[in-house]
């Protein structure tokens, strides 16, 4: 519920507090909105403990937000850290392609926010962030407002269907009938059902252009679904239409798997942006060709998480509404004490969980140094480490590892210390094992042990 300017002034009383480093008050009253009449802060406080400690509120319990929350508490034990997440439980996108074809169960991917909060000594608050008063440093949520000293926004990505349609009804049909499954939850369940019930024909999937979430994942998914069709004698094939002119990452490994393992089960068509989708007749049109499909999963372009646009913290549409931040410190431009991290960042880093996790450690260090009043933190590069399955029977994988360097002259980021192993024929089984070890160690990093 929004409060009026007059109500806000009445409510505020003497409750104006310093939001520097002296913590958020235990007052149950909101700070005044009098200079910001458009602000729509709830008039009730979130049901959270009071604190005199500096409060750090992290929005988004994904790979980035979980890392920021855990590490802020570790580096600044005196901070009161609140993780605001709209989901009840965590589902991992990494390794989910293997779950689609029954190589792992859903327990492997599902994790407990309460456990993470207990283990790492912060608070998990189940709510959706819906409003922000930057001046007064108040975050509004679906379950009341929260005053903060530092705010971190890590909302991940949203989909952008505008290349295909501006008709919202059609967009909703695409989302409902042929979801991308690049955000965790029901989309993945629908896709798994589609694979399990597929009777034959073309199973159409798409690869968007631009820096989409997890560059290798659409190729990995094509491989494992093709393998599933092959193992189960399904007279169908994956038709992978790629907007890009070639495979965007680990090209040698994926291309050789396509050619050598899935000749009859996977057709890869690069340089094939879709111009029109006819859902009723199940045909897509590219510039020169048309393709029929029996079933499909359309992966559209991605953009920054919508909450950034709502909060006035996104770049313009040309920049895919990604975070408007100082790219070295992750601080929001035009707002104090707000940081933005994860896949919504504007830098061309790989949009991966490992990138978000390591970046979260750096953001936490910056915030902790402010809270602890210690010297500023030198820039630390994020690390991308990503395994991709190319076959499930037997399990084989390839991987890439890279860091990033910053060129002060050109003010650009570049890949640094990149290594890859795309030789699935000899090293595939070892890489497949390492994929599970990587995931297990990252889940432990984010959630701690299950006995806590
Ligand atoms: C199929 C697939 C395979 C992948 N494989 C790999 C891999 O092998 N290795 C790898 O490193 N990466 C992989 N990734 C990429 C990885 O999943 C993402 O890069 C990572 O999830 C990004 O982390 P994030 O924290 O930015 O966003 P997310 O993990 O998406 O988290 C964002 C969170 O914010 C929450 N949120 C959003 N808005 C609000 C709001 N207003 N209020 C409250 N909460 C909100 C969301 O509910 C969500 O939990 C894969 C992705 C996919 C889809």
- Strand coverage percent: 15-25%
- State the CATH class of the largest domain: Alpha Beta
Architecture of the largest domain, according to CATH? 3-Layer(bba) Sandwich
Q: SS-based structural class? A: alpha/beta
Any low-confidence stretches, pLDDT <50, length ≥5? 1-38
- Which value, in Å, is the CA radius of gyration? 23 Å
Number of strands: 22
In CATH terms, the superfamily of the largest domain is FAD/NAD(P)-binding domain
Query: Mind describing the biggest β-sheet?
Result: 5 strands, parallel
Q: What is the topology, as strand order, of the major beta sheet?
A: 5-2-1-9-19
Total helical elements: 12
Averaging pLDDT over every residue, what do you get? 92
> How much helix, percentage-wise, in residues?
25-40%
* CATH topology annotation of the largest domain: FAD/NAD(P)-binding domain
Gross morphology: globular
Give the N-terminus to C-terminus distance in angstroms.
Answer: 37 Å
Question: What is the secondary structure topology, with strand pairs?
Answer:
Blueprint (H helix, E strand, L loop, with lengths): L4 H8 L42 E5 L3 H13 L4 E6 L4 E2 L4 H5 L5 H4 E2 L1 H8 L2 E4 L2 E5 L4 E4 L2 E4 L2 E4 L3 E4 L7 H10 L8 H11 L4 E7 L9 H15 L4 E7 L8 H11 L4 E4 L6 E3 L4 E3 L4 E3 L2 E3 L3 E4 L1 H5 L27 E3 L12 H20 L10 E10 L2 E13 L4 E10 L2 H24 L5
Helix pairs in contact: 2-11, 8-9
The site of flavin-adenine dinucleotide has 35 residues, from helix 2, strand 2, helix 3, helix 11 and strand 20.
């Amino acid at each position: 519920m929004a409060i009026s300017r007059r109500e806000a002034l009445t409510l505020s009383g003497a409750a104006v507090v310093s939001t520097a480093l002296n913590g958020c008050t235990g007052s149950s009253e909101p700070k005044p909105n009098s200079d910001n009449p458009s602000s729509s802060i709830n008039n009730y406080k979130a049901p959270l403990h009071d604190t005199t400690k500096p409060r750090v509120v992290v929005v988004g319990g994904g790979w980035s937000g979980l890392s920021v929350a855990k590490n802020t508490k570790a580096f600044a034990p005196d901070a009161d850290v609140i993780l605001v997440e709209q989901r009840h439980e965590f589902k991992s996108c990494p390794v989910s392609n293997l779950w689609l074809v029954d190589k792992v169960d859903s327990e492997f991917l599902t994790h407990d926010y309460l456990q993470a909060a207990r283990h790492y000594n912060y608070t998990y608050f189940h709510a959706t962030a819906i409003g922000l008063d930057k001046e007064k440093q108040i975050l509004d949520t679906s379950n009341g407002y929260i005053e903060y000293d530092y705010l971190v926004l890590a909302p991940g990505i949203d989909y952008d269907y505008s290349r295909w349609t501006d008709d919202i009804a059609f967009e909703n049909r695409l989302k409902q009938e042929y979801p991308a499954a690049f955000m965790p939850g029901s989309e993945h369940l629908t896709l798994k059902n589609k694979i399990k019930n597929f009777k034959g024909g073309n199973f159409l999937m798409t690869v968007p252009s631009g820096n989409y979430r997890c560059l290798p994942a659409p190729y990995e998914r094509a491989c494992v679904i093709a393998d599933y069709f092959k193992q189960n004698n399904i007279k169908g094939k994956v038709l992978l239409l790629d907007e890009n002119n070639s495979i965007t990452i680990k090209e040698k490994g994926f291309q050789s798997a396509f050619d050598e393992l899935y000749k009859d089960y996977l057709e890869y068509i690069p340089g094939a942006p879709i111009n029109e989708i006819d859902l009723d007749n199940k045909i897509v049109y590219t510039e020169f060709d048309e393709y029929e499909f029996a079933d499909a999963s359309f992966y559209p372009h991605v953009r920054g998480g919508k909450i950034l646009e709502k909060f006035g913290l996104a770049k313009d549409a040309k920049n895919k509404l990604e975070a408007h931040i100082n790219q070295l410190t992750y601080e929001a431009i035009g707002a104090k004490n707000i940081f933005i991290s994860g896949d919504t960042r504007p830098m061309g880093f790989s949009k991966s969980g490992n990138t978000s996790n390591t970046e979260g450690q750096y953001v936490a260090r910056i915030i902790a140094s402010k809270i602890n009043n210690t010297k500023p933190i030198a820039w630390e590069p994020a690390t991308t480490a990503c395994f991709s399955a190319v076959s499930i029977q037997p399990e084989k994988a390839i991987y890439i590892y890279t860091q990033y360097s910053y060129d002060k002259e050109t003010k650009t980021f570049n890949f640094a210390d990149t290594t890859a192993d795309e030789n699935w024929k000899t090293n595939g089984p070892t890489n497949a094992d390492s994929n599970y070890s990587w995931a297990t160690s990252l889940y432990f990093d984010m959630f701690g042990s299950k006995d806590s």
